[in-house]
Amino acid sequence: MTPILQVEKVSKSFGGIVANSDISLRVNEGEIVGVIGPNGSGKTTLFNSIVGSHPVDSGSVRFEGAEISRLRVPQIARLGMLRTFQQTRIYGEMTCMDNMLISVPHRHESLFSILAGFPRETHDEAEELLDFVGLYAKRHLRAGELSFGQQKLLEFAMALMNRPKMLLLDEPTAGINPTLINGLLDRLNRANKQLGITLLVIEHNMRVIMNLAERIYCLAHGQLLAEGDPEAVRNDQRVIDAYLGGQ
Ligand SMILES: Nc1ncnc2c1ncn2[C@@H]1O[C@H](COP(=O)(O)OP(=O)(O)OP(=O)(O)O)[C@@H](O)[C@H]1O
């Protein structure tokens, strides 16, 4: 198994708050790995450290073997790793298609190429990916008119426009109704199996993460508490205690 992401002893504090302390994890190419933990356990901070939203205090982050802990978000995105957010980041006044087209800035860097408009292949790719997430029929609607769950699917499709090798998804199913959750899970699995995208997923919905992930890391109080397959993590007494203690 070839590692695509290796996090070693990463720490990050905000003032006196230790959000991450000596966290190590590894994701292999083609895997779907989950990150769970009670509120405030440091999951989002870890994602931000991995994708370059803020510098880490110490430790190493390697993507495809290369050290990336000193790179920032756009550089890491160009290498093929990006994240989505708990709250969707779409432009509600723009159509779904336009949201898709503007989500690949690094592929159209020159002013000339922007003025010349987006190439036909980018339009085609946007339509294909909207079809992939089941939003093709809504491609000319304003994104703000979509339901929250559909907006999450749009955001997922927008991330796919960057042709990532790896995606970090922060609570992809939060706020989505159960019917759409199944649709989203199906898309995540297909992105993994058909498009070959490695996934690291923060998720509070235990049913979802236990079904989706091959391996799960559990954080508590900024530290790595447990790691293993879903069955092992679900039955780990430390994990059970962390959740009960956090309620
Ligand atoms: N920018 C920041 N400034 C100050 N403190 C922060 C900042 N970001 C996170 N924290 C603190 O770091 C700790 C970990 O927060 P983080 O958001 O990473 O946890 P989480 O596991 O993602 O939580 P949740 O499940 O509620 O989203 C918390 O105590 C939080 O208040």
TrEMBL record:
Q: Which top-rank group of organisms is this from?
A: Bacteria
Any matching Pfam family: BCA_ABC_TP_C
The record's section on SMART domains has: AAA (SM00382)
Q: Which GO terms describe its cellular component?
A: plasma membrane
List keywords of the entry alphabetically.
Answer: ATP-binding, Nucleotide-binding, Transport
Which SUPFAM superfamilies does the record associate with it?
P-loop containing nucleoside triphosphate hydrolases
The record's section on PANTHER family has: CONSERVED COMPONENT OF ABC TRANSPORTER FOR NATURAL AMINO ACIDS, CONSERVED COMPONENT OF ABC TRANSPORTER FOR NATURAL AMINO ACIDS-RELATED
Q: What is this protein called?
A: ABC transporter ATP-binding protein
The organism named in the record is: Ferruginivarius sediminum
